[in-house]
Design a protein that fits this description.
single chain, alpha+beta, 34% helix, disordered C terminus, Mvd1_C, GHMP_kinase_C_sf, diphosphomevalonate decarboxylase activity, diphosphomevalonate decarboxylase, ATP-binding
């Protein structure tokens, strides 16, 4: 089902480990808010790009020595976040009647919990790794439904390319699913530049903000616009019309942040606003570049490959020390199975890509 370009090996042993690489997805038409808290069913459909050069690497093995799970997320010590992971694993055990405990080690090569969809790639990687380790033989659709219980956007990170997450209407989520509309190589020149305004975790989680945004007077209108926007977006991507894709993306972003402001939430900093102003200025110079942002201060810029250096150089004129992460469109998750010598340790990292 998933890419195995690093090799797939399964050892019939008490000490197997599964390592999974997934990519965060950045929405062009956004998901924010749920209609069912426990099932994480979204209020609106969304459409997102998987980012190849940003990834989560998660390794899961059995913890044979103790009747508890051990969780280690590199450079992340938020207790509430760790508790969410532990609660998800407990839910996994209950759903599939698993009697095992697990060691989980995970890391991102991009800032965690800062508005870059790390929870999506994280729970997608964890879901795949748990299912593979326990040999559940879940379909991709079943994996997406499982991952959604941890993070809504994890539904999309089960897939590669350009992904449409259908919100559905069924109360139990039977018609809520994701699918790849365009593969990663559909538009080879397309790039997203992630402007890292802050490396620090955000103070208000997406989940908590999602409970508040639904109270915005403008929220329902924003929700209702999603399907038509996604249809227009798909047509524009099919024809590779960067101007139309960018304008749809920006409009959806700005309307979402307007809804957030109506309920007293602002993720943008002064630097975020300055970067958006720079992008608008570049467009006046006939440079095709467009911004979006999510539940965090980071600004993402959609553009074409030949304009990346020009855009970054202009931003660094005002922010010389800012970090800019450039990515093309990401592929499917990668799964690697291996044998470890100690069930409480995870294998050495076989993935050395860095930004």
């Amino acid at each position: 089902m998933f890419s195995s370009s690093y090799g797939v090996y399964f050892f019939h042993s008490n000490n197997p480990a599964v390592t999974v690489i997934t990519h965060p997805t950045i929405s062009l038409v956004k998901y924010f808010g749920v209609r069912d808290e426990s099932l994480r069913l979204p209020t609106r459909s969304s459409f997102a790009l998987s980012l190849m050069n940003l990834f989560t690497k998660t390794t899961v093995s059995f913890n044979h020595g103790e009747n508890k799970d051990k969780i280690l997320i590199e450079n992340y010590e938020d207790e509430a976040g760790i508790e969410m992971v532990m609660a998800f694993i407990q839910q996994f055990r209950k759903l599939y009647q698993i009697q095992k405990y697990f060691n989980v080690k995970s890391k991102n090569n991009f800032p965690t919990a800062s508005g870059l969809a790390s929870s999506g790639s994280g729970f997608a990687a964890l879901s795949i790794a748990l299912a593979e380790l326990c040999q559940l033989n879940l379909s991709r659709k079943e994996l997406a439904a499982l991952a959604r219980l941890g993070s809504g956007s994890a539904t999309r990170s089960i897939y590669g390319g350009m992904v449409f997450w259908h919100s559905g209407e069924d109360a139990k989520g039977k018609d809520c699913f994701a699918e790849t509309i365009f593969p990663a190589d559909h538009w080879p020149e397309l790039r997203m530049i992630v402007i890292v305004i802050s490396e620090q975790p955000k103070s208000l989680s997406t989940r908590n903000a999602g409970k508040m945004i639904v109270k915005s007077p403008a929220y329902q209108g924003w929700v209702d616009a999603a399907e038509k926007r996604i249809n227009s977006l798909i047509a524009a991507i099919q024809d590779k019309e960067i101007e139309l894709v960018g304008s749809i993306m920006e409009q959806d972003c700005l309307e979402m942040h307007h809804c957030l402001k109506q309920v007293g939430i602002s993720y943008h900093t002064e630097e975020s606003n300055q970067v958006m102003t720079i992008i608008r200025g570049l467009r006046e110079e006939k440079i095709d570049c467009y911004f979006t942002s999510d539940a965090g201060p980071q600004i993402k810029v959609l553009c074409l490959e030949h304009q990346v250096d020009l855009i970054i150089n202009r931003i660094k004129e005002d922010f010389p020390n800012i970090r800019c992460l450039v990515s093309n469109i990401g592929n499917d998750p990668i799964v690697k199975k291996s044998l470890i010598n100690n069930s409480n340790e995870c294998e050495p990292d076989p993935f050395s890509a860095k930004l």
